[in-house]
């Protein structure tokens, strides 16, 4: 088991060299260590907070020369221990990634061959350039920072794409090193997150060209290929016109959906799946949760439900067909939440939600240690809401059933049902449409009660409580249940301000209820009076005759 962070040396036998790479458990981390950064803490103070192209233009000739102890990797790469830091190197040690981006962007505009000079003129080393890309793309609030420094009318992603072109000029033609392959995959990941799929495709093309139009034996590259060429990107799936399924709620989903998203390579997935299942193939030893999920998403996008079911049967020994003979499987533990989400999403896209829920039940039964995280439950409710048909399910039993399963799963494991705003928003949609205030009341002791332990509630949390409370109070007022409404307000008002608001809301609807009943009573009395008058007139006329 690797520690969470450290330094490893990867021997590349073909080159008879060793490169030291800082890493963490979730992703290769090529940023400079904290010790090296602290040596230049004073440098940060001299760097302007607001970085613009104009500022860099004024200061581009200024440089700070510092001498530091060399990195281990620099020794191994044969770099001089007396190496002086250039301006960009100094900025890198200060972790001023946006400043470096602006500087490189400006220099590339002034000199078309600037990219080629980065390594030849020792402006940055290979490791430093990779550290810069890693640090930049992992910067917090990167989209906003890019917007602030990008030229007017230019998308922030354009600056990153320009950086990609500069990087190509720096590394030149020829095969990619493992470090360069990692850098390009980082750029692909950024463009996918930014919904710039065309740019991501272009970077992927570069990778494939470098490997003679073959997919490198690299998990991240394979995942990106499946996402960009085989449909394994569910957030970009267009709405299924046959089922009308949306894969995010309208309020939580961003504008990632595009009708142009297609699977360009429909033959690759089946062949690749065969390689993953072949013990003699090198891919069988490189399989991962993310890679398996991407394969399932691809099959779901292409409508290959039978292949998904076959994959589940062979790997985990689970089938909806009770007559199927279960063979021994290689899996000793159940799937992760990530894989279960991919199964759920893929089957939901093909209008197989009932089958998906049955499979989830079978997984939980056979593998009770399966960990279902918050994201799994969120996706479950998003899909159940997207598939809900008020005509076929007027009482919202699908959503209620999902809630019961979630509650039972937590209870059997002695866990608290943690609040999730997005999930509860999805649940509220069905409760409101079905006017099911009784189920809404249950949400307070089961989940929303956690909010009352907090001193300050966020605007979203207050808004959620108000939605549920108003649904309940409106129905209690309509039923004339005055006592239960007051008890609910007293027990479940997070603060005095909301208690006054809830009481006012209830009184308003109770007044409407009383006025409505009064009008109904008056109308009924008038109708009865008219009927009695008519009867009396009839009796008088009868006597006259």
Automatic annotation (TrEMBL):
InterPro entries: ATPase_expression_mit
Origin: domain of life: Eukaryota
A GO cellular component entry from the record: mitochondrion
Coiled-coil intervals, chain numbering: none
Signal peptide: none
Classification via Pfam families: ATP13
Statement: the UniProt record of this protein carries the keyword Transit peptide: yes
Entry's localization field: Mitochondrion
An example Gene Ontology biological process: regulation of translation
Keywords: Mitochondrion, Transit peptide, Translation regulation
Primary location: mitochondrion
Subunit note: Binds to the 5'UTR of the OLI1 mRNA.
Function according to Swiss-Prot or TrEMBL: Required for translation of the mitochondrial OLI1 transcript coding for the mitochondrial ATP synthase subunit 9.
Family to which the UniProt record says this protein belongs: Belongs to the AEP2 family.
Protein name per its UniProtKB record: ATPase expression protein 2, mitochondrial
């Amino acid at each position: 088991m690797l520690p969470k962070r450290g330094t490893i040396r990867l021997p590349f036998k073909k080159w008879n060299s060793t490169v030291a790479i800082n890493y963490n458990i979730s992703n290769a981390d090529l940023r400079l260590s904290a010790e090296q950064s602290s040596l230049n803490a004073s440098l940060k103070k001299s760097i302007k907070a607001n970085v613009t192209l104009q500022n860099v233009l004024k200061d581009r000739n200024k440089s700070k020369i510092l001498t530091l102890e060399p990195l281990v990797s620099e020794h191994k790469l044969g770099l001089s221990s007396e190496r002086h830091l250039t301006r960009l190197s100094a900025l890198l040690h200060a972790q001023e990634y946006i400043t470096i981006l602006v500087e490189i962007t400006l220099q590339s505009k002034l000199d078309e061959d600037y990219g080629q000079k980065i390594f030849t003129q020792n402006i940055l080393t290979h490791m430093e350039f990779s550290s810069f890309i890693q640090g930049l793309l992992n910067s917090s609030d990167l989209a906003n920072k890019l917007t602030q420094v990008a030229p007017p009318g230019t998308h922030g992603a354009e600056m990153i794409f320009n950086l990609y072109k500069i990087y190509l000029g720096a590394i030149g033609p020829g095969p990619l090193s493992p470090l360069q392959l990692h850098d390009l995959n980082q750029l692909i990941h950024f463009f996918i997150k930014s919904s710039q799929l065309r740019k991501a495709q272009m970077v992927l093309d570069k990778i494939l060209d470098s490997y003679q139009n073959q997919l490198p034996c690299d998990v991240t590259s394979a995942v990106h290929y499946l996402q960009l060429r085989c449909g394994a990107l569910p957030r970009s799936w267009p709405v299924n016109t046959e089922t009308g399924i949306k894969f995010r709620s309208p309020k939580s989903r961003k504008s990632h959906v595009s009708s142009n998203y297609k699977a360009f390579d429909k033959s690759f997935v089946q062949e690749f799946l065969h390689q993953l299942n072949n013990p003699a193939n090198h891919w069988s030893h490189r399989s991962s949760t993310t890679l398996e999920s991407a394969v399932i998403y691809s099959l779901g996008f292409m409508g290959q439900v039978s292949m998904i079911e076959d994959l589940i049967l062979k790997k985990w020994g689970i089938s909806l067909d009770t007559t199927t003979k279960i063979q021994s499987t290689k899996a000793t533990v159940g799937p992760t939440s990530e894989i279960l989400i991919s199964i759920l999403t893929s089957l939901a896209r093909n209008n197989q939600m009932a089958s998906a829920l049955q499979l989830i039940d079978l997984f939980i039964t056979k593998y009770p240690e399966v960990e279902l995280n918050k994201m799994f439950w969120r996706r479950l409710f998003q899909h159940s809401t997207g598939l809900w048909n008020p005509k076929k399910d007027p009482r919202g039993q699908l959503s209620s059933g999902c809630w019961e399963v979630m509650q039972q799963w937590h209870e059997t494991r002695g866990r608290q049902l943690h609040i999730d705003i997005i999930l509860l928003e999805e649940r509220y949609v069905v409760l409101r449409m079905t006017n099911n205030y009784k189920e809404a009341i249950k949400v307070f002791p089961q989940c929303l009660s956690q909010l009352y332990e907090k001193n300050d509630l966020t605007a979203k949390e207050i808004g959620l409580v108000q939605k549920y409370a108003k649904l309940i109070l409106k129905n209690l007022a309509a039923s004339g249940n005055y006592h239960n409404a007051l008890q609910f307000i007293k027990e479940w008002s997070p603060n005095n301000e909301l208690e006054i608001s809830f009481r006012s809301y209830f009184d308003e609807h109770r007044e409407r209820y009383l006025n409505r009943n009064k009008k109904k009573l008056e109308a009924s009395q008038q109708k009865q009076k008219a009927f009695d008058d008519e009867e009396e007139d009839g009796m008088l006329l009868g006597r006259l005759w």
